[in-house]
Amino acid sequence: MKPGKLPNSKLEKLILNDLVTRREETVLRPAIGEDCCALNLGDNLCVISTDPITAADENAGVLAVLVSLNDLAASGAEPVGILTTVLLPTDIEESKVRELFKTINSTCNEMHIDILGGHTEITESVNKVIIITTAIGKVSPSGLVRSDGAEPGDVILMTKAAGLEGTAIIAADKTDEIYSFLDASDVDTAKSYINEISVLEEGMIAAANGASSMHDVTEGGILGAVWEVCNASGAGAEISIDKIVVRDITAKICGHYGIDPLKLISSGSMLITCKEMDKDKIINEICSKNIDCFEIGNITDSNKVLSIKNNKKAEVLQPGADELYKVI
């Protein structure tokens, strides 16, 4: 099988279709496009999400914390803490282990969350550091935002830009290569995109102002995220490609490697759907925090996701392996 997330069709066939247990405490269960679960344990819902970091070498500690918190943000949940499982190759030096956990700890401090526990193991089963992070948060029952809440007529919003995480990873892990076509300042800027990976602030704003669904844009990029929200919601969409922001440095890196920035892992961007009447408030509130937010399309009552460019429509198919794996 190809590297990357298990394809949605196989995820459903091999795993999801066999999940039969139904406890009454579970109010949000696994589904395609749904990155969190939610448990009713009292006054608040406990929201949980887990994610691995497998493609990044540098900045893996930062990404391990933020990508899981982003899933909570997409559910409107306030993060409380993380558990982290770290698998280390046998040739790793103690200084590297210390550096990794200092990064994880400092990122948690910045996000004001606890490290609740985890597991650390040196094993011959891996040849690079693998980090699996489980994030735990809380939200009121009325504040939970689901990935399957998009409805025909909803506006589709996007924050920041496409391919931020992928750009940062490639810049950090392929520095010597990209110096051949980018100058030093551009390389530094590309690496700095790691500082924009969190979507917690825009997620909290959108959840409080009428978001019908949210999805943080990870593997499969912005087009994959739209497809997953539509698949979860039983709806379609029309996306204006010209409205999707791709920064110049991202475009240069993607052009060099022959990859599509709209299908490149894009943590740092939040996909939001909302009613037309809530659109301006959400956009204005997010932009007031110096975070770009803009409209890219609409949810439709068809069963297809269509991209529109130069007045031509093309169907967006379910996401395959992320473009990053063509480079890393």
Question: Can you tell me about this structure?
Answer:
This protein is α+β, with helices and mostly antiparallel strands. The protein folds into two domains: 8-143, PurM-like, N-terminal domain (60s Ribosomal Protein L30, Chain: A), CATH 3.30.1330.10; 155-326, Phosphoribosyl-aminoimidazole Synthetase, Chain A, domain 2, CATH 3.90.650. Helix content is 33%, strand content 26%. It has ten helices and 13 strands. The protein has helices at residues 8-14, 60-74, 94-111, 164-173, 175-178, 184-192, 200-208, 221-233, 248-257, 276-287, and strands at residues 26-28, 37-40, 45-53, 78-88, 114-122, 130-139, 155-159, 211-216, 236-240, 270-274, 293-300, 305-309, 312-316. The strands form two sheets. It has a seven-stranded mixed beta sheet, with helices on both faces. Strands 1-2-3-6-4-5 form a six-stranded mixed beta sheet, covered by helices on one side. Helix 3 links the parallel strand 4 and strand 5. Helix 2 packs parallel to helix 7. The longest helix has 18 residues, at 94-111. The protein starts with 7 loop residues before the first helix and ends in a 12-residue tail after the last strand.
What key attributes describe this structure?
26% strand, alpha+beta, 10 helices, 33% helix, 328 residues, 60s Ribosomal Protein L30, Chain: A, Phosphoribosyl-aminoimidazole Synthetase, Chain A, domain 2, 2 domains
Strand/helix succession: HEEEHEHEEEHHHHEHEHEHEEE
Query: What gyration radius follows from the Cα positions, in whole Å?
Result: 19 Å
The CATH topology of the largest domain is what? Phosphoribosyl-aminoimidazole Synthetase, Chain A, domain 2
Pairing-aware structural class of the strands and helices?
alpha+beta
Average residue-wise pLDDT: 91
Query: Can you give the helix content as a percent range?
Result: 25-40%
Parts with pLDDT < 50 across at least 5 consecutive residues: none
Can you tell me the CATH architecture of the largest domain?
Alpha-Beta Complex
Distance between the termini: 17 Å
Number of DSSP-assigned strands = 13
**CATH superfamily membership of the largest domain, which one?**
PurM-like C-terminal domain
Strand content: 25-35%
Instruction: Provide the domain count.
Output: 2
Class of the largest domain in CATH?
Answer: Alpha Beta
